[in-house]
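call fold(seq) -> tokens
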Amino acid sequence: MTRHLLTGTELSSAALDALLTRALELKAAPLSSRALAGRSVALIFEKPSTRTRLSYEVGITELGGYPVLLRPDEMQLSRGESVRDTALVLSRHVHAIGVRTGPDALLAELAAEGSIPVFNMLTALHHPSQALADLMTLREAFPDRPLSALKLAYVGDGNNVARSLCVLGGIAGADVAVASPSGYELEPEAGGSRTSDPVEAVHGADAVYGDVWVSMGDEATADARRAALAPYRIDDALLDAAAPGAIALHCLPAHPGEEITAEVLYGARQRIWDQAENRRHAQKALLEYLLAD
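ret:
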């Protein structure tokens, strides 16, 4: 069966644990694998990207593969060609397809119509590529404790990043708490626990996670979002309310002074820049897994 990563639910706890272990091995020896030698991977970017494009493009190259970057204005999809036809053509030329887009249905259709792995580089509802790097960063920051013994608190908008943390964090056995204001809650079906109180969410947490308040497409409601989410800023006081030695995480890009203070973002209590680097290593492990014989 062809393997895909559309939401993260495709991974068992054993597969996720092995993938994270492999990611740490690849970080220690970045050029040790040639798993993609002679293989090409299509990367479709319908949304802007810095970290996702950089980490996947460099990671595929380090694995010996060739990344084929495709933008909407360079594809016949933008002129009405069907997703089915696109999937059939790509399946004849490349070995996997990564997509960064809005509608989750696009990934599902590519996976259903093609014959090669499809992986999610961000959609409106899910960001499993990010969550893999987040869990890897937790493993790295707390090497003497399993993920099942850690608590992760997410504070802010219940968005795609929060959902993927709950989904993949739950598979790993971690305790994931999400604090959001009214109107910004994450549905309970994603897993984890819910509260409107950020201090309650971070109580006992080993990591406190934040994301931007105004994402792509939210510009029209920017002022209302900033007002509602202001109490969910990650600062030293919120970290003090977490477990001793708690770290701050953020998927970036960040807006210092909004969802996180500059003191935390650039200070000693965060692993945010390790987290950004770990995108590459976790995704390399993912590509090995998806394309394994």
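The longest strand covers residues 40-45.
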